[in-house]
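COMPLEX REQUEST
Ligand: 5-amino-5-deoxy-1-O-phosphono-D-mannitol
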Amino acid sequence: MCGIVGYIGNKNACDVILDGLNKLEYRGYDSSGIALNMNGKIEVHKYKGRIKNLIEKLAPLGCNSQLGIGHTRWATHGAPSDKNAHPHSNESGSIALVHNGIIENYVQLREWLIKEYNVNFKSETDTEVIVHLIDHFYEGDLLDAVYKSIAKMKGAYAIGVICSHEPDKIVAVRKDSPLIVGLGEDENIIASDIPALLKYTRKVYLINNDEVVLLTKEGVKIFNENREQVQRDIFHVTWDAEAAEKEGYEHFMLKEINEQPKGIDVTLNRRLDENGRISLDGIQITKEDLEKINKVYIVACGTAYHAGLVGKFAIEKFAQIPVDVDIASEFRYREPFIDENTLFIAISQSGETLDTLAALREAKRRGARVLTIVNVVGSSVARESDDVFYTWAGPEIAVASTKAYTTQLISMYLIALHMAVTKNVIKQDYYDLLISELKALPAKVEKILENTDTIQEIAKLNFEKQHAFFIGRGIDVAVALEASLKLKEISYINSFAIAAGELKHGTIALIEEGTFLTAIATQDHLFEKMLSNIQEVKARGAFVLGVAKEGNKQIEQQANKVIYIPDCIDEVTPILSVVPMQLLAYYMSVLRGCDVDKPKNLAKSVTVE
Ligand code: M6R
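STATUS: Structure written out below.
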């Protein structure tokens, strides 16, 4: 999604903004641009393609300015192009604006501006109407013009605006798109996310919906929709700048895969006391609350949805509450049975996924209690929830979600166990066993990461294949789905996952000589059934990779290659079996020469529908 950076202060705004935009690359983009106040005039430079293009074009100009705004655009209205790239300007060039989000009524506004004021539009974007609106309302007070403009706008937006007539300020607005403000000494910064400003400050204001911010070099004022100034506590960023960098790994994805033992450990152990009792900071669900809950919905998108599938298994098995799992973009448009006895659980790494946010709002509107599992502190999803469980995975930069997923699984197990204990429906020895198995996971994931030779060898044997299949039974179906998504999104191999028992109902027709199929067979009670499924596809010529627990050597007689995960109880296998699948996708992507961290057509944070 789009990224915004704006700077006012004593440094060279151009350097700070370009640096910040580079840090926001992970959000996905197809063009970038910058507007700088240069000797009383606003200069705009914007180009299709990577930020590198912009930097190369700016280098000979030697831009030096103390005020500017920059943007990385991920096209929604109008193709990726120089003219559609942000910043956009009014006709005289005195105002420049960057925007993240979608203006839903831009067609009407555009027609009105053309008909009534003969405005000449230069781009196909929805964004351009905003700058012309501000121009229309401008009477020497940028803040006032912005307020009058947003009163006419419908949709989601974070915007940053500068004006050559008021070179001492940036005005910014947030509505349903992320925006934060970094506070420095004689300098202030706006950005879509923390990594963009971490080099300059750790002091941040989290901006709420419908708030308008006035930044000068000396200070920051936040106003609500009634133009009243509001006070905001400073949020201190505690994680290191290096946490958002690659630390010597070739790709962020590989770094993040390797960070999983730590992420799992932190997410788990911060919630356990020395006796293995769970204490859930941020979740205030009592025994009485739980007794009222007769239905749980888990709603999410993509990888987070796959974590939800495992969550259903955990809550139903441990806490004995029926659970439905749904894709957020589907949930929000149907008529789910929700009332005040429903618990709605949203899962999201970014906390800004528009479909998840919309589903959450719909559930809330219908009276559900909303609990969120989210990685980004202070994100929209977190702020709109009744209870928040943070995954402590740290910033995830690669578009392909890895460490967020395994920490989401840990979170689901903890929440399910907490519910089970609160409801008093779990036996102590079973609880103790589960806790000790969970605690053993970081070391077991470490063990998988220590030896990747087999995984690399399998990748070499199969990376040129056009298709891949993943099968499993029980909770292994969720892992198969996640493994398949991981592979397709970063290697562009046409990949498909299915419950193994469903193969013979259609999909087996696609199996032929050399077809690459991964059979995830970690569930002891389903192991024999999986061996039969492997035989079925082997008989039709498939190259079968089996994934099994260490002890289950029988699989070697059926599969062409086997990856073993350390021994554990069936309930927690998804956290282990997904790791070699992430690595397999990674190595296949590298061998195919793909852009691992920034796959084509994808964005890290999907803040549009
Ligand atoms: O930020 P979220 O967890 O809400 O994002 C949900 C999906 O967009 C995300 O998991 C996506 O599927 C990833 N690219 C998967 O690797």
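REMARKS: The longest strand covers residues 95-103. DSSP finds 19 helices and 25 strands in the chain.
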